[in-house]
Specification:
heterotrimer; A alpha+beta; B alpha+beta; C alpha+beta; A: alpha+beta; Ubiquitin-like (UB roll); 2 domains; five-stranded mixed β-sheet; B: alpha+beta; Aldehyde Oxidoreductase, domain 4; Aldehyde Oxidoreductase, domain 3; 28 strands; about 30% helix; globular
Chain lengths: ~160, ~750, ~290
């Protein structure tokens, strides 16, 4: 058994210095040590995207990132998307157009959608299908997720 | 704000969900909490000879629970009470729970789990329904049969003689994993003096309550079950939560600490319930004009090792087996049998997707035998108002399947596409082609519990006013993504004439809410929603009756009246109990009569492509048309249909449970394939409304309906594309290849 | 999540030299850990047997894409996202870009690396067929120096490869000679996105008038390693892709691959589809 080590990184603009096991999943560190429970475990294998966060501007599956590798990084989770009370256009669109049903895939889906729109502000439906291909939803059949993203980019 | 019913109010708890604030069971944590883990049988069947605790593990730090620690009765109270919480001497399926462990350190817990060895003296096991029927081994009861039904209408035996044509067919469906994205989980606090409280991901808090009362042999008030935000259920969290909640509670009971027990995906897939595999044999007699004379249907489902809900799944599958057609002579013989697979359970559709798949494939086959188009054959046999179903239920509403079929085929451009595809598919240009096909299915789905089920449930909903004039709805019906909170709020808002935001939905907690029945069977809007309407109407009537509110009022008057009433009398609360509609008669012995209060009617059309190089079939376009009584919330209703169609596409073309010695070998999302956004076609949803008098606003139930139609519609389309009739789902490319070569 | 995380070392050296020194000091004890998209899956399944890892994710010496007239050279830590973004790769090595775009979803592509993919050595890997078809070479480094070798022949058996316990994969390079070549890449998986392949086919061919001058045919998921079908290639060189040639090539392919039945698919299916892909590829050469 090894000892913990110090890791420093920013989450949603706030700096944190934590004692962690280096191989601990970033997902667990966020949820358990920082109480940021928005990222979810759906599969533990990088298939479902429910654990999606943004690290240094790119979406990743936080269940596949050992925390030692985010030393010095900037991370955005779903909790960092809204600006105090003001929801992001994608969040509002998901509420208005049925993009969320049970909600468990929603944080990851929203981050993936935001990432998509930042890279491609006017995606076609095919672009949206491919951009969100790493986020599985079992409730919606995806149709209203696509619609929510389309409506969000019109804003 | 006037007339909220029929409008797309945004999801009541939507803001929480899009900001990551919604609290699911794994998001909760209690001081001093332990983590729990389950150690499971490595064998399918046999006698437990030894349980040993090995390795370099500080076992004295662990809470260990086995069958002998159960304070009350060691079975999961449900229907037949045959499933133990923990196997005592014998195991009957792989992954059957045997030992529970708890420890503060979740990492050490995993090491410990790996080091508990369960030795089994194996006995011969059976893994298919064929082997069970053949009684290769008797593994349950006298004959492996959990339940059997016989529906007998008219005289089938005499009808064969008069038939111009008799057509037979055999159809099969495989297991399907619900794959809610949130795994099963529970947190429990337990104390012999105080009682047991469990928080968990679940559909039916009162099912869990009933089970824990027996497990702990405690009075009703000592067990408290609270539903946390639930990340999908689809039936997979109908009865399974009773098991995991009991396990968490047993560990809490023994350790004296809160215990959190959450499955990871591998465990959830390998150990929890799935859709019952099925085999259906059809024998159909028709006249040369294509009129149905007789249907003989043998319907068998594989229930796994314990009974769980098999009798009810069988019931629904049986009643739906003859579909939306009129046939004067029908015999349905159905059985749910035991195998040494982990017990199967509820999954959206609950037997109907299985029997409807077989029926619609058979109808295609009969149409072809008679020489009629697939469409014309249906038209000559659709049931109409005044005619009787297979259970001799007289249809007492205007049903127009003919019109629905015409409209669906028009919306999907069926005729010209079918002609075009058939023509193009015949062309061969030496290259690997993408063949196209289009097909449809016509079906119905009954909402609510079968027959006298709703009467038996005696569902209750309460409504209470707050001093500020808000109205709280107290029901055990859970929000699992389908929109319970929003629909109940709209119904209450409409009935009271106050705004949507003034309605609060109380979190389902058995210490606070009455039992409005389980969140299953497409009943939540239709049955429980009606009770919401009557409960709040009772509040209104009490206020008016007290003289504090005039019969015609505005929102502010309503709120003021609530405040005054409560100041004067202390509280304002009403309850409403289920009353069956008049003239609904069901005979449980003969399995005859009015099976369901209401049916939703549907026609689905699927367009597919078939890749000759890879033998893959993909759904390219989909039209879903259904008559549902009343659309309470268009966005939510369409969401239900789209989600159900996507799951059914998975059931048809992607989701294959690979069994190895009774165990799901592909228990990872990498290898159990559900559709991604790239795999789902545009799904176009259309509704018609023929109001059901006893549903709120006229609504019928729709949650399960979309699961029934896609599989046969897709296979009909694939037959159009390839010329090959396939009769089994899931239909994987490997089987498509086989079938195409065989032709 | 089945792992006892405190049992795993993940040490972060500051430079590549430090990482190599560690490998040399305790050969066989340490293994490199790149993006984690394979290793973390094993960890969570409780199947990560090895316990001591060197975190190379931050080593910039292993990043970057450089091009000369003769080669394009990619650092071992080049991610699938970086592959797809490179204009030279898009223009001259489209199969590698296609493979990268079909590897998992975007979240995987942002973290998965070519080096990790090669060393993980799954026979179902998506990029190696393209790399082999493009005659890739790889550079192994250690404290003793560095060496370039053809990627062809690097893998000798299931998860076996010609790499010493003190060596690390540093770079991959592709000769820039695809100007007049036809590319054909197809991954046949379990669904349209995020799928493990059942058959993965990468081929290039150069024709002169109607004859096949040269070709590379590589198939994945049909053997313990990704295989270059050299006999099939031989049967096609200097031949016209007419019906008879195609028939002979298919027979050769059938003999060169050894697919199995497994949890995802069957040997029969893989064989048939691999053959169909070859036929389809040859049809594109005819056109």
């Amino acid at each position: 058994m090894i000892t913990t080590q110090a890791v420093e990184f920013k989450v949603n603009g706030e700096s944190h210095k934590l004692e962690v096991f280096p191989m601990a999943r970033l997902l667990d560190v966020l949820r358990e040590q920082l109480q940021l429970t928005g990222a979810k475990e759906g599969c533990g294998e990088g298939e479902c995207g429910a654990c999606t966060v943004i690290i240094d501007g790119r979406i990743v599956n936080s269940c596949l990132v050992p925390v030692a590798q985010v030393n010095g990084s900037e991370i955005t989770t779903i909790e960092g998307v809204a600006r105090s009370d003001h929801l992001h256009a994608v969040q509002q669109a998901f509420i208005d157009h049925g993009g969320a049903q049970c909600g468990i895939c929603t944080p990851g889906m929203i981050l993936a959608a935001i990432d998509l729109l930042e890279r491609n502000p006017e995606p076609t439906e095919d672009d949206i299908r491919n951009g969100l291909a790493g986020n599985l939803c079992r409730c919606t059949g995806y149709m209203k997720i696509f619609e929510s993203v389309v409506r969000a980019c019109r804003k | 704000m006037s007339h909220p019913i029929g409008k797309s109010f945004p999801r009541k708890e939507g803001r929480k969900k899009v900001t990551g604030q919604a609290v699911y069971v794994d998001d909760l944590s209690f001081p001093g909490m332990l983590h729990g883990a389950t150690v499971r049988s490595p064998s399918a069947r046999g006698r437990i000879t030894k349980i040993s605790f090995e390795g370099d593990i500080p076992w004295d730090e662990f809470t260990v629970v086995t069958a002998k620690d159960v304070p009350g009765a060691n079975y999961v109270a449900l229907i037949l009470n045959d499933q133990p919480y923990l196997a005592a001497d014998f195991v009957n399926h792989p992954e059957e729970p045997v030992v529970l462990l708890a420890h503060r350190d979740k990492y050490l817990l995993e090491e410990a789990r790996r080091n508990v060895h369960i030795e089994i003296e194996e006995q011969p096991a059976i893994f298919t329904l064929e082997d069970s029927l053949a009684k290769k081994e008797i593994i349950w009861g006298e004959d492996n049969v959990f339940k059997a039904f016989l529906v007998d209408k008219g005289n089938v035996d005499e009808a064969w003689a008069g038939a111009d044509l008799i057509v037979e067919g055999e159809y099969e469906t495989g297991a399907q994993e619900q794959l809610y994205i949130e795994n099963n989980g529970a947190i429990a606090i337990a104390d012999p003096a105080e009682g047991v409280t469990v928080w968990g991901s679940m559909q039916c808090p009162y099912y869990v309550h009933k089970a824990l009362v027996k497990l702990f042999d405690l009075a009703d008030e000592k067990i408290r079950i609270i539903q946390t935000e639930t990340g999908g259920g689809f039936g997979g969290k109908e009865e399974y939560p009773s098991l995991i909640a009991g396990h968490a509670a047993l560990l809490a009971w023994k350790s004296g600490k809160p215990v959190k027990l959450i499955y990871d995906r591998a465990e959830d897939m390998v150990a929890t319930t799935k859709r019952h595999p099925s085999r259906t044999r059809h024998k159909t007699a028709v006249t040369k004009d294509g009129k149905l004379l007789a249907m003989e249907i043998d319907f068998v489902i594989d229930g796994g090792a314990y009974c769980t809900l098999s009798p009810v799944v069988l019931s629904r599958g049986t009643i739906h087996a003859a579909g939306p057609y009129f046939c004067p002579n029908v015999r349905i013989h159905s059985r749910a049998v035991a195998t040494n697979l982990p017990p199967q359970g509820a999954f959206r559709g609950f037997g109907a997707p299985q029997s409807i798949f077989a029926l619609e494939r058979q109808m295609d086959r009969v149409a072809q035998a008679v020489g009629l188009s697939l469409e014309e054959f249906r038209r000559r046999n659709f049931i109409h108002e005044g005619e009787t179903t297979a259970t001799s239920q007289v249809i007492r509403e205007p049903v127009n399947m003919d019109h629905l079929l015409t409209r669906a085929l028009q919306l999907s451009d069926y005729h010209s596409k079918r002609e075009e595809f058939t023509r193009n598919n015949l062309k061969s240009n030496g290259h690997f082609a993408k063949k196209r096909g289009i097909g449809f299915a016509t079906f119905m789905h009954g909402a609510g519990f079968t027959g006298s089920g709703e009467v038996y449930l005696q569902s209750v909903v309460s409504a209470e006013a707050t001093a500020e004039g808000n109205v709280r709805i107290l029901a055990a019906s859970t929000e699992i993504g389908q929109g319970t909170n929003t629909i109940f709020s709209q119904i209450a808002s409409e009935a009271l004439g106050i705004d949507f935001d003034s309605i609060e939905i109380v979190q389902p907690d058995t210490s606070r809410v009455p039992n409005s029945g389980p969140t299953v069977a497409s009943r939540t809007s239709m049955i429980v929603g009606k009770l919401v309407e009557s409960a709040v109407t009772g509040l209104k009537q009490t206020l008016i009756g007290s003289g504090l509110l005039p019969p015609s009022y505005g929102q502010s008057e309503f709120k003021r009246a609530c405040g005054e009433y409560i100041a004067r009398f202390g509280s304002l609360k009403t309850s409403s109990t289920y009353q069956p509609p008049p003239n609904v008669h069901w005979d449980d012995e003969k399995y005859q009569g009015d099976a369901y209060g209401a049916y939703a009617w549907a026609v689905y059309v699927a367009e597919v492509s078939f890749d000759e190089l890879t033998y893959e079939a993909h759904v390219e376009n989909f039209v879903a048309l259904q008559e549902v009584g009343r659309v309470l919330n268009p966005v939510l209703a369409a969401g239900q249909i789209e989600g159900g169609v996507a799951q059914a596409i998975g059931f048809t073309l992607f989701e294959n449970v690979v069994w190895k010695d009774g165990r799901m070998a592909n228990n990872q999302m990498t290898n159990y394939i559900i559709p991604t956004p790239a795999d789902i076609p545009p799904i176009r949803v259309y509704f018609e409304e023929n109001p059901y008098a006893y549903g709120p606003g006229g609504a019928k139930g729709i949650g399960e309906l979309p699961m029934d139609g896609p599989a046969p519609a897709i296979l009909s389309a694939i037959e159009n594309a390839t010329g090959v009739s396939f009769n089994r789902v899931p239909l994987m490319p490997e089987m498509l290849m086989k079938g195409v070569f065989a032709e | 999540m089945r792992a006892c995380v405190p049992n795993y070392h993940l040490t972060t050296p500051a430079t590549l030299a430090d990482a190599l020194a560690l490998l040399e000091s305790e050969p066989g004890v340490w293994k490199p850990f790149a993006g984690g998209t394979d290793l973390m899956v094993l960890l969570e399944a409780g199947k990560l047997v090895h316990r001591n890892y060197i975190n190379i994710w931050g080593l910039n010496e292993l990043r970057g894409i450089e091009a000369t007239d003769t080669y394009i050279t990619l650092g071992a830590l080049t991610t699938y996202t970086e592959v797809q973004a490179n204009p030279i790769l898009r223009r001259e090595f489209p199969m590698l870009c296609q493979a990268a775009s079909e590897t998992g979803g975007l979240a995987i592509q942002n973290r998965g690396t070519l080096g990790g993919n090669i060393i993980n050595a799954s026979p179902a890997a998506d990029s190696p067929p393209a790399l082999l078809a493009y005659d890739a070479e790889i550079q192994l480094v250690s404290t003793r120096g560095s060496r370039w070798l053809p990627y062809q022949g690097f893998h000798t058996g299931y998860k076996q490869m010609h790499i010493g316990p003190d060596e690390m994969l540093a770079r991959i390079r592709l000769p820039r000679n695809t100007a007049d070549v036809k590319h054909y890449y197809r991954k046949v998986g379990t669904r349209k996105a995020q799928a493990i392949s059942k058959v993965c086919f990468a081929a290039v061919g150069r024709t002169d008038r109607e004859q096949i001058e040269d070709t590379r045919i590589v198939v994945g998921s049909v053997a313990p390693i990704v295989i270059r079908c050299v006999q099939t290639e031989d049967s096609l060189r200097q031949q016209k892709p007419d019906d008879e040639t195609i028939r002979i090539a298919c027979a050769s392919l059938f003999r060169e691959i050894s697919p199995i039945d497994d949890i995802r698919s069957t040997a029969k299916y893989r064989s048939q589809v691999a053959t169909n892909l070859l036929v389809d590829f040859l049809a594109t050469l005819r056109a």
